[in-house]
Amino acid sequence: MPGLDDSRQFVPLKIAVLTVSDTRTPEDDKSGATLVERITAAGHTLAARGIVVDDIAAIRSRVETWIADPEIDVVITTGGTGFTGRDVTPEAVEPLFEKRMEAFSSLFLLVSFQKIGTSAIQTRATAGVARATYVFCLPGSPGACKDAWDNILVHQLDYRYRPCNFVEIMPRLDEHLRRPKAKGATV
C-alpha cells in the first residue's frame, strides 16, 4: 500500500510559485496563496513567488531564471492552462522540458474529474523536468491548485512517500548534464 514511511527523514524542498495572470495582484492571488500555504504547511521552503502576465516570453523568462537557479528544486505555475487566446502557459513552458511527465496530466485529469466531472476536460495542465528542476503547470483556480497539491504533489514531493517519489530520484535528474544541482536525498 502506498503511504508514508516514518523511518525515512523528511527532505524539505525549495519551491517557487508563479501565477500567470493579466489581472491578479499579490493581494488577490488566491491560487498562489493556496499553493504557498500548502507548500509551507508540508514543511517545504518557498524559494520565490511571482506574478507574470499571460505572455509566452514573460512566462518562459521567469521559469528559465528559476530552473537555472541551483537553490530552486521545483517550480509550480498556476494559470494559463485553459483554451482561451491568452492561455499560453503550456506553450511557454513545455519547450523547456527535457522530459515530459505525461502521467501527471493524466492523473490530474482523474483527480479533477472526481471533483468537477466532465469540466475537467478544459485543462491543459502539464509537467516535466527542466535542468534538474521539476516543473508543474496547474490551472488558475484555487480548487485546482488544492486538488493537484493534496492528491498528487504533497505525496510525490515527500521523500518519505513509498513505494517511490520524486525526491529520491532528484540526485540523478541531471546525470546526463553532469551538473551538481540535484542534491536531494540519496538513494
UniProtKB/TrEMBL annotation:
GO CC aspect terms: cytosol
Q: What does this protein do?
A: May be involved in the biosynthesis of molybdopterin.
List the InterPro entries. MoaB (IPR012245), MoaB/Mog-like_dom_sf (IPR036425), MoaB/Mog_dom (IPR001453), MoaB_proteobac (IPR013484), MoCF_biosynth_CS (IPR008284)
Q: Which SUPFAM superfamilies match?
A: Molybdenum cofactor biosynthesis proteins
Record keywords: Molybdenum cofactor biosynthesis
Q: What is this protein called?
A: Molybdenum cofactor biosynthesis protein B
Which pathway? Cofactor biosynthesis; molybdopterin biosynthesis
Query: Domain MoaB/Mog spans what residues?
Result: 16-160
Gene name linked to the record: moaB
> Which PANTHER family does the entry link to?
MOLYBDENUM COFACTOR BIOSYNTHESIS PROTEIN B (PTHR43232)
The yes or no answer to whether the keyword Transport is present is: no
Single Gene Ontology BP annotation: Mo-molybdopterin cofactor biosynthetic process
Return the similarity comment.
Belongs to the MoaB/Mog family.
Which NCBIfam families does the record cross-reference, listed alphabetically? Answer: moaB_proteo (TIGR02667), molyb_syn (TIGR00177)
Q: Please name the Pfam families in this protein's record.
A: MoCF_biosynth (PF00994)
